[in-house]
Amino acid sequence: MKVAVALLGMLSCAAAFPWPYPAQFDHSNCTIKADSPTIVAKNSGSALLDSAISRYTAIIAKERFWPPADYKLKKPETTGTLGKLLVEVATDSEDLNMETDESYTLDIPAGGDATLKANTVYGAMRGLETFSQLLATIDGQRVVRGTPLHIEDRPALAHRGISLDTARNYYPVSDLKRTLDAMSYNKMNVLHWHVVDAQSWPIESKTYPELQTNGAYSVDMRYSYKDVSDIIQYGRERGIRIIPEFDIPGHTFIVGQTFPKIMSCLDKQPGWDKYAAEPPSGQLNIAKPEASEFAIELVNEYSKLFTDDVFHLGGDEVNRNCWAEDPDVKEYISSHANATVETLLADFYTQVHNAVAKQEKIGMSWEETLFHSEYAPPKDTLIQTWIDEQSIPKTVAKGYRSIASPASSYYLDCGHGAWLSNFDGNSWCDPFKSWMHVYNFNPWANVTDPEQQKLIVGAEVALWSEQSDTVTLDKYLWPRAAAMAEVAWSSKTDSTGHVRTTQEVVQRLHDQRFRMVGRGIGAEPLQPLWCARNPGHCLLP
Known about the structure:
Blueprint: E1 24-26, E2 30-33, E3 39-42, H1 47-62, E4 80-89, E5 104-108, E6 112-118, H2 121-133, E7 135-138, E8 141-147, E9 149-153, E10 159-165, H3 173-185, E11 190-194, H4 210-215, H5 225-236, E12 241-245, E13 263-264, E14 283-284, H6 289-305, E15 310-312, H7 320-324, H8 327-335, H9 341-358, E16 362-366, H10 368-371, E17 382-385, H11 391-397, E18 401-404, H12 407-410, H13 435-440, H14 450-453, E19 456-463, H15 473-477, H16 480-490, H17 502-518, H18 529-533
Parallel strand pairs: 2-4, 3-4, 4-6, 10-11, 10-19, 11-12, 15-16, 16-17, 17-18, 18-19
Antiparallel strand pairs: 1-9, 2-8, 5-6, 5-9, 7-8, 13-14
């Protein structure tokens, strides 16, 4: 029996429905016991797979998830018993990049052993998460409902991420690891680590040790090389890539605390708004060769520390006034024919993107590098589009790959008002983006050409940290990031072309939110518990 997607939000007991929803999900009506399922790898020597199996064995052993809509159900009648879950991975490859195959198939019979097959260990990880979500405990009895069931699954987008700013406010390593855990529960695969910004430089540098010494908020608010490598490995074990961002040439005031001679417009007060998007102002001085050399050395150092094949160079919100009034920039322009701020900026971008290429990395940048400068990035550059939703079709129309991060839908820090202490008003990106608003955004909207649609390769929600820190992290991210994760994994439409609505998916997201809370993630509630227990009763008439 197949259940139409349109009914999923109304069903409470026929079967468990995973988040994100699988590409193909065939199920029937038998319920089987699953007291202590054992997970066994077949013919695999992968340490990553062994680690994933151990992790999910522990999760399943501890978890007793009772779906909120089923709170009145009594212990169900069962027709069989689940045996082992046999995991089979076709290849030994453990490469993790945008081309990694995350597909899997999962079969759970009406009794006996289940099978999970994947081409890579990372596909197996996604299947293990789905398997864990199919288990439910009803009145003390753990079961799998809807058997026999068959799932064939694969992601719609290769890049499904969170951009997290750890510079404006600091997050300890434990926060980052917990975030990676939560991402794995939602089949997300990229943590875009916006590790430094104007306000602080928390990460260790071997090339320029003073950057961290002078730039971290305190000795307790730092990331060592060991911390970074530990986070990278922790993510890898969950199939999550760590893409670093070192935003240059703007957003770099903190560099001036160590190297003021390579900077322009350092902390202009009180009129900072003439020189920066937010205080403190400060940009690398693009007229000075030493500034470009500094930026290239950063690329050289951190492209070795961070193992992913993508390196984010930022490039957003550069302020021309900062340079136009700088005496060194003015002197350079007056003494070089045809030189302008724009030619200097294009030359800077050329140098740092060339440095990325020399390290055999793929460059990534915010959309201003493509649209607001004279520089033409290499065609393999990933363009992160954020200013408005139309930036996505404009990017792919130019032949570039787009990572969709529209502030109007995917900026999760918005909605808390202004943070400037003498202005009682809204922030620039208010209002708050509800999970429904996040879910309703379609990255593929307004792109009808099939070849251009293929260039939409990813989506990221962003949490900028002017008003967020370790206290608020979980509730600001979850479950709203999970809403984006389903769209990025399952697409906006099912196999019939039906567009999933928030009304249809809310019950599954309730389940996912309660499941995450049980796993130690402080996800905020969607509705009163009464609504979660009474599907379909909390709708606008």
